[in-house]
Predict the structure.
Amino acid sequence: QVQLVESGGGLVQAGGSLRLSCAASGSIFSVGAMGWYRQAPGKQREVVATITRGGSTNYRDSVKGRFTVSRDVAKNTVYLQMNSLKPEDTAVYYCNAAIRTSYYSDPAGYWGQGSQVTVSS
């Protein structure tokens, strides 16, 4: 009953920018940490950036200074602003959220559908 819907992926030239959005909806009691992960073909999914409900952020080293994760708690939405994109950023990007569906439920991880980000050289 919970879904995360992503938008904003696409094709961009190296050095360009994209902004991804991900909104959670459905039977939501509360949303904890949210984040972005990416996966290239034949590679394991890796964390890109995370953000807590209070706004604390973490980034993998390769995107520090280029990517910014933010969120709108009231809208259950997380964003990833990607600047100075590089070809090695090419991947399918997935949003993730820790969501409780009721007061009595433990948080569970939910995933967006994935957004293709392609950076050309």
In short: The chain has a mean pLDDT of 97. The longest strand covers residues 30-39. The radius of gyration is 14 Å. Residues 23 and 77 are 4 Å apart (CA to CA).
